[in-house]
Amino acid sequence: MLANLLSAAGTAVSVIVGVVAVGIVVFAIVDRILQKKRGKGGCDCGCSGCTGCTGCTSRPPEAKTKEQKK
Length: 70
Known about the structure:
Blueprint: H1 2-37, H2 61-69
């Protein structure tokens, strides 16, 4: 009887950990989608379509500041 109880507790813990992990992944995806809709890119340098800071480094600094002022 004790073995069955421990097995059920282990299963419950596994299910809880799985649900929490899925929740974190869903939250991260939804958060990224909402950031994209708000116009916030990965680097916040004024080009909301870029996926990271490396996409903005080739642009001259004056182009970045003009776009941020708009």
